[in-house]
Amino acid sequence: MGRQLPNSAELIAVLDALPLAVFYTIPASNAQSSPVVHANQTALEMFGLFDDGDIANQLEHLAFTVDRELISLPREVSPLMSPIIAGLSGDHVERRDLIFNGLPLNVQSASVHMKEGTGFLVTIQPRDHRLFRHQGQHADLLTSEISLRDLISFDKLISELSTKLINAQGDEAEQHIQQALAALGEFCQSDRTYVFLFEYDMSAMSNTHEWVREGITSHVDDLQNVPSEGLPWFFERIQEEGLFVIHDTSKIPEEGAAERAEFEREDIRSMLCVAMYAANEMIGFVGCDMVARERHWSEADIRRFKLVGEMIANAIQSQRFYQSLHTSQQQLIAANDALRELALRDGLTGLANRRQFSERLEEEISRSRRQDFALTVAMFDIDHFRKYNDHYGLQAGDGLLRRIADILQSHFRRHGELVSRYDGARFSVLIPHVEYTMAKKRVASFLQLLNELAIEHKDSPQGFVSMSAGIAEVTDKLTADDAISEAENNLGQAKRDGRNQVFPRIENK
Ligand SMILES: Nc1nc2c(ncn2[C@@H]2O[C@H](COP(=O)(O)OP(=O)(O)OP(=O)(O)O)[C@@H](O)[C@H]2O)c(=O)[nH]1
What we know:
Blueprint: H1 8-17, E1 21-26, E2 36-39, H2 41-47, H3 56-59, E3 64-66, H4 83-88, E4 94-100, E5 103-114, E6 117-126, H5 148-167, H6 171-187, E7 192-198, E8 204-212, E9 226-227, H7 232-241, E10 243-246, H8 257-265, E11 268-278, E12 281-291, H9 299-343, H10 354-371, E13 375-382, H11 385-392, H12 394-411, E14 418-423, E15 426-432, H13 436-453, E16 467-473, H14 480-496, E17 502-503
Parallel strand pairs: 16-17
Antiparallel strand pairs: 1-2, 1-6, 3-4, 4-5, 5-6, 7-8, 7-12, 8-9, 10-11, 11-12, 13-15, 13-16, 14-15
């Protein structure tokens, strides 16, 4: 090196004359005691301190807050640790998101070498709200001042993206979020931009969207369901401060060892994450990485991420809203279908009820007229059912109704046929597509089948269950009601003729 190191007195003289606030430590002459903390004149004035030779104990009381205008925090928060104390303890500090006494600040740390050893210094100066002036010795082209042209083109880009996101529907939003990340990545010249969303209980986070520059490794697949407890330092910062900025991952302090290892594994050198909020709840963050390159994120970068983050959070929120609306809609439809189904079914037998039968009859009548096919209505009634109930009890009566329903159902199962419980012990059957004579034969063969089954009914003349039936052909002139009345009348006639038969009778039988 060859350069002569200054002694502390020379250094103090220089620092005291500076127009920016400086806090610094001078190594104690006695190696055992702790370094002495000093503040220059500007620092004393800016923070209202008095010079008692060691101002360390006054630092604790300086109340910094995180700039809520810069990061959309729902409430006022203070940084987890005083940036001055952190910097003077040797941590790397570079913050542009803090406020003291209403004054937005840039806080930066550095180490100073002097004859007595190495000390630390923290410089603080007011932050210009519109233009960020890069401070410090790291001249980095990427963090040079934002030109007016940059700002205008970024504004234009943002407004285009937000219009797209606002109007996005369903999957379109996904595509626009992806485009927003790509645009942001290109604009901020970062290597990777991404969105992470937290689980509702903040126990884990998942990388939901990612953009990577050509040649940069994607991490989206292995960053699903990352448990928060694995990255406690990161989680605490993003949750409390709404922002996580690392200019150089190798300078992460020891408490962030897990994070440092993880970022190194992912080959990340610098990163910036800005929290996203929906309805005052933190839902995740939008961020970007620099791979293998140190990067000094500017206030403008943070603002850009905050803006895009807000847009994405809105889009995600409306997507979630849309999805939950869609889900409830589906549930409502399903519940309605189930209710409708219930309203159209007979509770005891599970057959169609009289209402469904009437609706289907109307439909089949118009269809049969359009397509010119025959249609027959048959009405069945269990003979001496009252006596069956009286003899065997109502529960057995119910059982018989169910059994008859099953037998009818398995007999009339051709295409278009419909069996319903009309009322009490009466069942109606719709028989389309076969001529009247054929339909009558199908009814008669059912009565025959029932006789063959010989279901016991001790109180009936023949000792087993029988049914009577009346049928009606639905001709051009008949309405649904006419057809039903005619079938009911014919059923009455079958009863009067001695039961266990169909009316009109089958000729030549
Ligand atoms: N177990 C049971 N009985 C019912 C139900 N609905 C109606 N009933 C009974 O069914 C019987 C119907 O009798 P009707 O069809 O009028 O006369 P019936 O005794 O069968 O004599 P006919 O029809 O003249 O052969 C009545 O006693 C009703 O109480 C039901 O859901 N369960």
